[in-house]
């Protein structure tokens, strides 16, 4: 498990490309039969990828957590971005297909991941944050996630938003999680951009076509920076930073948050002509 520390707006404004990537971009999420995790000091969020192919993978604890088991003081959100898979939580099996979400509450001890087919393995993106209250483990399919259609063709941001873990969906202690799918011909996400100083956010880009990419915008609204992101890579977004993006073609991304509240609408919007 890697560790990423917090960076101030002033410090970030002076970073070169390599420094920005080292601090905010997680380049490797999925490797066959491995678990990759990154511990961020922004709201103590852990993000990562689990890719079981020919093996069943177990989520154990880590020395840095100083805990008996991974979810002793944490909760966990999981979204599958590839082939059909199975997750077992304390003996209970859950079939988690592409774009399905499984929430696992604090106190669950034995968590394993497997794929239905090794040739089309599952790829589970995971987010975990501290929790002071237990909520039950719950599976939600993409069809049950109340998809909301937003944006227009004229502004190249026609998209469908799926909300899984939030106040009116799967209940959690503080985790919020969902995903956005851009339609053909649409490339912009989260524009007009916004910040929310009360919550950090994580982005995981997926279904980015081979040879294509996403230009992720970050930084303070008057001091923006950018990162080129490829398929199956993640961004750690500080609370003070915008998080918008523009792709060379359409794509999808998972968004997840933790912090002071769980209100999806808690955003401080920035007018496009105010960006610098």
UniProtKB/TrEMBL annotation:
Cofactor note: Binds 1 zinc ion per subunit.
Binding site for Zn(2+): 194, 196, 201, 243
Family designation: Belongs to the KduI family.
Organism: Emticicia aquatilis
Keyword Secreted: no
EC assignment: 5.3.1.17
Record keywords, A-Z: Isomerase, Metal-binding, Zinc
BP terms from Gene Ontology: D-galacturonate catabolic process; D-glucuronate catabolic process; pectin catabolic process
Domain of life: Bacteria
Protein name: 4-deoxy-L-threo-5-hexosulose-uronate ketol-isomerase
Gene giving rise to this polypeptide: kduI
């Amino acid at each position: 498990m890697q560790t990423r520390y917090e960076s101030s707006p002033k410090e970030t404004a002076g970073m070169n490309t390599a420094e920005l990537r080292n601090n905010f971009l997680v380049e490797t999420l999925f490797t066959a039969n491995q678990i990759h995790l990154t511990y961020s000091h922004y709201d103590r969020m852990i993000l990562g990828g689990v890719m079981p192919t020919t093996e069943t993978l177990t989520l154990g604890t880590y020395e840095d957590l100083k805990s008996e088991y991974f979810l002793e003081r944490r909760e966990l959100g999981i979204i599958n971005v590839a082939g059909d898979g199975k997750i077992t939580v304390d003996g209970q099996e859950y079939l988690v297909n592409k774009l399905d979400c499984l929430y696992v509450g604090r106190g669950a001890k034995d968590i394993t991941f497997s794929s239905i087919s090794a040739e089309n393995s599952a790829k589970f993106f995971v987010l975990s944050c501290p929790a002071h209250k237990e909520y039950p483990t719950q599976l939600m399919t993409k069809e049950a996630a109340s998809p909301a259609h937003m944006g227009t063709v004229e502004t190249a941001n026609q998209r469908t938003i799926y909300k899984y873990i939030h106040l009116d969906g799967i209940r959690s202690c503080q985790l919020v999680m969902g995903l956005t799918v851009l339609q053909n011909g649409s490339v912009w996400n989260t524009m007009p951009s916004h910040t929310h100083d009360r919550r950090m956010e994580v982005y995981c880009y997926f279904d980015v076509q081979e040879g294509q990419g996403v230009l992720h915008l970050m930084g303070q609204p008057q001091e923006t920076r950018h990162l080129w992101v490829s398929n199956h890579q993640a961004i750690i977004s500080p609370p003070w930073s915008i998080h918008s993006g523009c792709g060379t073609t359409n794509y999808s991304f998972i968004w997840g948050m933790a912090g002071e509240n769980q209100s999806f609408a808690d955003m401080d919007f920035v007018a496009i002509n105010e960006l610098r």
